[in-house]
Amino acid sequence: MTTIPSALRRPSTTTTHELGTASVTLLDRNRTRPFLLLHGGAGPVSVAGFGDLLAARLHARVLMPTHPGFAGTARPDDLAGIPALAALYADLLERLDVWDVTVVGNSIGGWVAAELALLGSPRVSGAVLVNAVGLDVPEHPITDVRGLAPAELAKLSFREPERFPPDPTRPGPDLTALAAYTGMSMSDPTLRKRLAHLDLPVKVVWGAADGIAVAEYGRAYADAIPGATFTLIEGAGHLPQLETPEELLAAVTAPLVAGAER
Prior knowledge:
Layout: E1 12-19, E2 22-29, E3 34-38, H1 45-58, E4 61-63, H2 82-96, E5 101-106, H3 108-118, E6 124-130, E7 134-135, H4 150-157, H5 175-182, E8 187-188, H6 191-195, E9 202-207, H7 215-223, E10 229-233, H8 240-243, H9 245-253
Parallel strand pairs: 3-4, 3-5, 5-6, 6-9, 7-8, 9-10
Antiparallel strand pairs: 1-2
Helix pairs in contact: 2-3
């Protein structure tokens, strides 16, 4: 008899369906691997293509929410702060009744992923932080990008910014919503201490050419989390899902080996 490793087990559900004159009891073992993919300040369009890649290559279920206040959506006044956004997504997983979820987040989405992991939801089985912000690292502060022209922001965001010229037809991030979630510093001085108690598999993945949060910042993030791995992607900046999606996919799906590629 084949034994399925506990990490690969997913809950079974039993339902009864009335089909004509017959009643059918159905045992449903859903083996679809679920991901919660969280965008950063660049908005949901910045992760959509990578979500498609995840779904196609892994035959995965990929949930890609738009943070309220982005892409023309409304943000209620009482939804403020990254922990509140993480709690919102914990409620979403409850509502959808999904289990064994790997949370993948880029930039502020990585910060949300870290806070969601800290909530201890049994529905979350791991997290991947991709060029995440949120950690207070005084020796390697996050670059203040407020007020930068699109071309200047692109130079900080991409290893090869000429491949991603600013699109004047695409609206920029909602700076009001961004400030409501992250504050002015883009960091939380309490996060490092809280991450020290995190008991969940975590991968920290970083584009080496990130001019917003440098690679040393990423290593500090990994060092703050017990057992976390750190993977550096040489060909990418702040948005590896756009510049090097194949390399990011490989990092997301690689076996977790503590301390890798530090």
